[in-house]
């Protein structure tokens, strides 16, 4: 974990991350610590919830807060509910009632609470290419519940302590909750390697019993691996990075793919079971892709916020991730990191005195200089911590102060990067703000002569569009397009 400072209450910086998709899979199972259900009671006024139900409801609300709330997608929800019903009928009584929530987050994750609440992010839904693939995800999470993995884990004192710490530090802390949504590096409680492999084996059998293609699990795992590589900017990841995305609590992807493929072969040769890609693609058409426009949007290195009517561009080589109240970015090498957020000055407080007081605990601020940034009054300064050098900038627009922090460790000097950053800051006109549109998944047919490159041209503003197109559609690098097939693209 790359942490470049400790923050005060006014600016609590969760860890700044290397550019990868950074959430642990099966996240929601930290709720394994819920008290055991002893049965609910009722009185003449209202039913009384059991301790387990109350705790589950609290965790549900915390998860909604941390992952952007519930995302309303009636067609996708109906498709998921149909899959779960088929899994339940094939489960021979082992699978009970499940409540499904789609979370408004671009991160790729799915998890289940022990009482039957299932969660999938919209970021995960857009990666699936057929019903068998999404069935494999749901069956995997259900398998953790039916195999009592959560209960087994809760019995381990060390893991229980870790879960409590994560819930306390992440879900109860608004700034850390926002960092979760942004994809900040947080390693949450894990199932054991054997539990993950067991859940994979159970899921393959169950989706086959439900009539789905058992090879859907291996296809989706392959897509998850591609997604991790894409989010890492096409660079090789260290062992530390690999443990921080949805695969973080799971064995290595090649091992899992080999295991689920072998399990599927025990059932039959490829080509068996339902895939129905057309129906699934119709269900997810129109789903939001990427950042929620309410939080601002990232377009390559650019950040645009139509609500605040501001825009800036990260320095060359940086990647950005937006959250509810912040933007976090890191350089390709990981040696430099930036954060952008905003505050309101106290009555009578000047911009210069605010910066001089220092908003980062443990960082000495000096070299304060009054300038203009984007035509607005601003202050820039230097800072130095134990291991990091800082360049700070604060821009006042009306009553709001926008703050930039650019940090570098080692011999890396952030001066040039900060100059590039603040030179790009500007306010948007009403027309420009209105033109910032959310990105959506569109399903389009391939025409004769279409190639990956020509389809990628239909996704302007996306980072590495050809690679993204292959990722979204589960295509190998050299795979040709099929004129009879419909494909996912990202467009306004």
Describe the protein in words:
There is one protein chain. The chain has 492 residues and is an alpha+beta fold. It has 17 helices and 19 strands. The protein has helices at residues 51-66, 74-90, 122-125, 131-146, 149-154, 157-171, 174-182, 193-209, 216-231, 239-242, 253-267, 277-284, 351-357, 415-424, 430-434, 452-456, 465-472; strands at residues 41-42, 47-48, 99-103, 110-112, 117-121, 288-289, 297-299, 302-305, 310-313, 318-322, 327-331, 336-344, 364-373, 376-384, 388-397, 400-409, 426-427, 439-445, 486-491. The longest helix has 17 residues, at 74-90. It starts with 40 loop residues before the first strand and ends with a strand. Mean pLDDT is 77; it is low at 1-46, 153-189 and 234-249.
Class computed from helices, strands and strand pairing: alpha+beta
Query: What overall geometry do the principal axes of the alpha carbons give?
Result: globular
- Report the β-strand fraction as a percent range: 15-25%
**Main sheet summary:** 7 strands, antiparallel
What's the pLDDT, averaged over the residues? 77
Low-confidence stretches: 1-46, 153-189, 234-249
**Multimeric status of the protein:** single chain
Q: Specify the number of helices.
A: 17
Strand arrangement, major sheet: 10-11-12-16-15-14-13
Helix content: 25-40%
Radius of gyration: 24 Å
User: Got a strand count?
Assistant: 19
**Cα distance spanning the termini:** 35 Å
């Amino acid at each position: 974990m790359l942490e470049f400072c400790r923050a005060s209450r006014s600016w609590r910086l969760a860890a700044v991350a290397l550019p990868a998709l950074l959430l642990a899979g099966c996240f929601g199972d930290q709720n394994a610590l819920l008290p055991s259900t002893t049965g609910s009671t009722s009185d003449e006024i209202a039913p009384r919830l059991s301790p387990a139900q109350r705790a589950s409801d609290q965790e549900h609300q915390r998860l909604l807060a941390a992952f952007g709330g519930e995302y309303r997608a009636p067609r996708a929800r109906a498709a998921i509910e149909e899959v779960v019903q088929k899994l339940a009928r094939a489960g021979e009584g082992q699978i009970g009632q499940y409540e499904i929530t789609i979370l408004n987050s671009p991160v790729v994750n799915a998890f289940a609470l022990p009482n039957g609440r299932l969660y999938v992010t919209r970021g995960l839904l857009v990666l699936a290419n057929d019903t068998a693939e999404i069935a494999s995800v749901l069956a995997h999470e259900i398998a953790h519940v039916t195999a009592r993995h959560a209960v087994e884990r809760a019995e381990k004192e060390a893991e229980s302590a870790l879960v409590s710490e994560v819930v306390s530090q992440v879900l109860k802390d608004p700034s850390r909750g926002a960092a979760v949504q942004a994809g900040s590096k947080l390693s949450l409680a894990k199932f054991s390697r054997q539990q993950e492999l067991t859940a994979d084996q159970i899921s393959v059998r169950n989706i086959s019993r439900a009539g789905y293609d058992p090879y859907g699990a291996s296809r989706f795992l392959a897509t998850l691996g591609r997604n991790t590589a894409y989010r890492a900017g096409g660079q090789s990841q260290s062992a530390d990075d690999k443990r921080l995305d949805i695969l973080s609590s799971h064995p290595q992807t090649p091992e899992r793919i080999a295991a689920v493929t072998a399990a599927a072969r025990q059932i039959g040769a490829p080509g068996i079971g339902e895939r129905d890609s057309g129906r699934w693609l119709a269900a997810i058409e129109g789903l939001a892709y990427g950042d929620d426009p309410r939080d601002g949007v990232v377009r390559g290195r650019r950040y645009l916020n139509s609500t605040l009517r501001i825009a800036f561009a990260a320095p060359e080589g940086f990647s950005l991730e937006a959250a509810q109240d912040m933007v976090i970015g890191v350089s390709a090498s990981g040696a430099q990191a930036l954060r952008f957020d905003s505050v309101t000055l106290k009555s009578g407080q000047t911009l210069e005195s605010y910066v001089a007081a220092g908003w980062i605990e443990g960082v000495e601020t000096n070299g304060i200089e009054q300038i203009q940034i984007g035509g607005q009054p601003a202050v820039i300064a230097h800072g130095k911590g134990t291991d990091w050098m800082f360049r700070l900038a604060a821009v006042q627009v009306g009553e709001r102060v926008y703050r930039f922090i650019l940090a570098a460790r080692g011999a890396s000097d952030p001066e040039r990067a900060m100059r590039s950053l603040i030179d790009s800051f500007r306010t948007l006109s009403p027309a420009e703000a209105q033109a910032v549109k959310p990105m959506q998944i569109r399903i389009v047919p391939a025409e004769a002569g279409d190639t990956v490159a020509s389809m990628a041209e239909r996704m302007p503003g996306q980072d590495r569009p050809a690679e993204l197109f292959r990722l979204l559609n589960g295509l190998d690098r050299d795979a040709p397009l099929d004129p009879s097939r419909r494909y996912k693209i990202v467009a306004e």
